[in-house]
Every structure is written in structure tokens, then in C-alpha cells.
Amino acid sequence: MRYALIGCGRVSPNHISAALDNGLEIVALCDLELQKAEALRDRFELLQSVRLFTDYRQMLRDCQPELTAVATWSGTHAGIAVDCIEAGCNVIIEKPIALSLADADRIIEAEKRMGVKVSANHQNRFNTAVQQMRSALRAGRFGKLLYGTTSIRWSRGEDYYRSADWRGTWAQDGGTLMNQCIHAIDLLRWMMGDEVTEVVGMTDNMLHPCIEAEDFGLALLRFKNGSYGVIEGSVNTFGGDWEETLTLFGEKGLAKLGGRCVNLVDMWRFADGDETDSHVLASCGEDPPNVYGFGHKSLYADMLSAIREDRKPYVTSAAGRRALETVLAIYRSAADGKPVALPLGDCASTDFRGRFGEPVK
Question: CA triplet 188, 194, 195: central angle to 5 degrees?
């Protein structure tokens, strides 16, 4: 299958590795800075026949890929994705799928109209530990779900934000909840039944005057099934990326996933415990080299199967929209100082411009 990558920045090596591991024919790389595409081609020793572009529209016309991944600035995801879809191309979209609900809906509408497959790149759903938790949940081992919590305790310094003009801006990125925390927010909503009815949020910019958006956020979610969710997200953790955790509390069970990116099983207790539980604790963790984890390979494999079998991907565009909606609802609640009911009306990250004043240049 002919494959192209749009955006050759920080996360691009994970996409190229996943494409190679799944036997894709890489035909093109595209980035506004041609040297980034060249460096990526050289790093993976790709064939010189792999074409390099600065204009993705020209790339779509000249190379006609069957599958494209969009890994550009967050604020450009939707526009590029829709252009790829309308060119008849299947698409994997890095998180967040968009920065407004209207743009997320444009993607979903184009996907249906063109009959292609679109996957939101929430690769942590494929973590071994996460899959074990999902299996236990589907088997009813937790009993009645009471509440779930996620904590994202990472660190991003001024150098990170100043490395690219788009980082930390409302128009192209959002803050820590939209960028660093949306994977965990996706997992929490997915595990707890997906249907959120009410959100209460608080956000702040505590240590990063150089950006427009938040570097810290807290939220309480109420789910339709009567359970609750708690979110804590920060890029102010002293000493680097500490942990990303996901804990489910049920009537008959408790499980906590930890590590830097929900890659370890920290606790696993169930009323119907058996010998398999000790195996989960001992053997279902992973040790990835960075917070991106190992999930891209599995997400790509699933996307290829979805295309060939004409089924929905495991992580759909609608799932990406739900994660986006949750973050925007937290932003809205924090800005208005009151609970917000879901489904959320039209909302975009740019609605919150000026929330923390002008950034220090």
C-alpha cells in the first residue's frame, strides 16, 4: 500500500517505524522545512525514490498515496486531513484530531462522503497494559464502575515551547490538556463508558509565561452510567516526565496502570482473582524509550486491516472527536467558572484567546 507522511517533526520517527514494520511502500515525505524530510529519509535509510515535498497538495497529486498520516501542527490537522480524504486517501491523524468541534465534524462528514477510513492516532489504546484493563472491563471483573482517575505528571520547559512558534498557542496547539494529556483523557472516557454528561474544570498557567495556554489543569467528569472521572494534568513536574497513570475503581475490582505513558501494571486486584492475575502484574508491562510508547505499530496494523476488511478502525475519527470535546469542555468550564453540560455546542480552542493574558516574548 502506497504511504506518505505529512509532517516530519518530533513524532515522525514513530510513524515511519510503524509504516516500515507493517510493510508499507513509503512513496513521499512532506514538511514545510525540506531539510526535516531529508533528515528523516536519511535516518531510516529510505530509498532515494521516496519523494520529498514542501506542498502536501502537490504530493497528493503527484504520488497518489493510499494511506497518509498527518503529523503537523495541531491547528492544521483538520484542513490537511480533509484535503487528503477528498483526494480519496485513507488517513491517520495525530492527536488532537482538530482544535474545534466544527473541524472534527468536517473530517467525519468527508470520511463518510468519500468512503475512506480515518483513524485518530490515540496509540496508547494498544499498550499491552491498557488492553489488559480493557479486557477485564469487558469481562465485567470490575462490577459496577464507581470512578476512574488519570494523572499526567510531565515536564516541558521554556526551550520546548520556544522550539516552534506554534507550541502553546490557542490557534495551533492549546495547552497541556490538549497536547500532552489528551491520550490519557481519551483512555479515561473510553474506559468509563464514553458518555460524559457534565464537566467541571479548572486551568491555569503557573510557570510558562511564554505561552498563551494552560500548563496545568484539573477536571471532574460525570458519566451517563453514574460513574465519575478525575483528571490531573501538568507539565510543571520537577525533574522531568514522572508518570501517566490510569486507575479504575469498581465495586469488585481495582486496577492501576502507570509508568511514563500508562505502560506498566501497578495494581491489579479483583474479587474473582485467579492465577492469571499474577501474570498480568508480572508480564504485561512495557518499557518504551519515550512517552510515545510502542502503540503506533499496532495502530497502523489495525488501520491496514480496517482498509482491507472494509470495517471501522479500532480508534475512529468519532473517538478523536470525543477526546477533543472533553478537553474543550474543560476549557469552557474553567473559563466560565461553572459546570458545562455535554454534548458540547460549537467550541474551539481559539475561543479562549486572552485567558491568561499575552505571552512574554
Answer: 130
